[in-house]
Amino acid sequence: ANYEVDFTLENVTVESDDDIEAAVKSNGHGITMTLKNCYVTGMVQATDSHLVIESGRYTARENDRCGVYANFGAEIYGGTFTAVAAEQYIFEVGGYDYDFVIHNGEFNTENYYTIVSVSGGTLSNYVKIEGGTFNDTPYTPEMYDDVAIKKGEL
């Protein structure tokens, strides 16, 4: 059964099989999925639901298209995020009516870009970065174009 309720996963370890699309998944308008101190190997997918990540470790698998997909807005307060494949992004975001905000965190990727947007609109209007460390470099506003890009501009 599907219930449209907010939910929180706390102190959970998820290691998904390679044949599963997403390790952790939410889907529903108006709900919020919150992850606190979780250890996830595989994609976190928030489709049509708001995502809040407070802490933990999130590692994409080789065959995941990204580490975290969020098309309905998200707030990243902390955690360690790793994309393992050269063509992989940590975050794939969409929906320029919904803000994607990085407050803090540690982001490690082989790819040049950490965040890729698949929607229209001006990127800086809905992808906001307030802090964090990107590949061992503390974030500064001058780095914005080095970590965030629209998919069509790759």
Mean pLDDT: 89
Give Rg in angstroms.
14 Å
Report, as a whole number of angstroms, the end-to-end distance: 40 Å
Low-confidence stretches: none
What is the H/E string? EEEEEEEEEEEEEEEHEEEHE
Number of β-strand runs = 19
Query: How much of the polypeptide forms β-strand, as a percent range?
Result: 35-45%
Biggest sheet strand order reads 2-5-8-11-14-17-18
What is the share of helical residues?
A: under 10%
Structural class: mainly beta
Q: What is the count of helical runs?
A: 2
Main beta-sheet annotation: 7 strands, mixed
Shape: globular
Question: What can you see in these coordinates?
Answer:
- The chain has 154 residues and is mainly β.
- It is 5% helix and 45% strand.
- It contains two helices and 19 strands.
- It has a seven-stranded mixed beta sheet, with no helix packed on it. A six-stranded parallel beta sheet has the order 1-4-7-10-13-16. A six-stranded parallel beta sheet has the order 3-6-9-12-15-19.
- A hairpin with a 2-residue loop joins strand 17 and strand 18.
- The longest helix is centred in the C-terminal third of the chain and has 4 residues, at 123-126.
Q: Which terms summarize this structure?
A:
154 residues; 7-stranded mixed beta sheet; mainly beta; 6-stranded parallel beta sheet
Summarize it:
The protein contains 2 helices and 19 strands. By secondary structure, the chain is mainly beta.
